[in-house]
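Students often ask why we bother predicting the structure of a whole assembly rather than each chain alone. The short answer is interfaces. A chain on its own may look different once its partners are present, and contacts between molecules only exist in the joint model. In this exercise we take two input lines together and write out one structure for the complete complex. Read the inputs first and try to guess which parts will touch.
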Amino acid sequence: MEAKKNGLEVIEGKAGKELPFSVPDGYFDSLPRRIQERCTQPQHQQPKQSWIFALRSQLALAAGFALLVVAAYFGYYTTTRSIPRDSYTLQKSDYLNIVSRSISEFDDIDLYKAIENKRKTDSIDSAARTLQQRYFIKKGNATTIIGEKYEEKP
Amino acid sequence: MECYSDKELLEMFRNGETRNFAFNLIVNKYQERLYWHIRKIVVGHDDADDVIQNTFIKVWGGLETFREESQLFTWLYRIATNEALTFLKKKKVKSFLSMDDVESQLAKTLETDAYIDGNELQLKLQKAILKLPEKQRLVFNMKYFEEMKYEEMSEILGTSVGALKASFHHAVKKIEKFMGEN
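Now the answer. The structure tokens for the assembled complex follow.
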């Protein structure tokens, strides 16, 4: 209570209780007449407003929202298309990164299984054949003959 | 001018022959108190002029059905307060402003309105009041400037006396701090 009184005293001591407002000369003499005139004059018939006019603020808000959605849609697709396709394909460096990150997750058994699987799909014969083909191509020999030679018979 | 009680004025208003005369007397009796009450809420003179006219137009329309469950002046104050607050809300909607922006606009009016003529400290107090939340602002104005009783304020604002006292206490603290800081 004491604090409140002190606070009030401080405010009153600084600013007093007078308002810093004024009115035009003779304002309160003319106000009753102006009010009386407005009260007793026949009420003007308000022109009937259409529902669009009545809902103009809501419609403006809805239109703004729709515009935002359209802008966001086009913005999204523009930025998506501008990304080059190459950026989606893995580069050699990416592969190395992935391997170096995931190599620690392999244990001996995984490694053994991987080697076993490799053996099933690859063969030493096919590897040798590929090497031979490359050699002949490099030396300028007739590759068609080589191709025919190694063509698998049905 | 002969001084009539509120009860006499209401009886005269209900009599068709003296209706306009009684209303004129009611306007004369309460216009200044209501004007200054409104002015403290809307700050600018032109806005206060609009609001007080709208207030009395509402009074004219509703006085016929006024059932004297509360005092006439309490009823008038309630209408004036509602009209002033509605005016600020409309202003906010029209200008797409938040309530905070409306308050900063009111603070600008303190510097630009033609009918502001207080000293620096009085203006500083008004700026401090404008920084208060709406309810605290109303309570502070009614208690500090109009020296209204809490019971009357409770009837006008529809808030308990305890809550009003708390609001006033908080308002005083904030204003004191603002005045000290600046």
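Check your guess against this: Chain A is about 70% helix and 0% strand.
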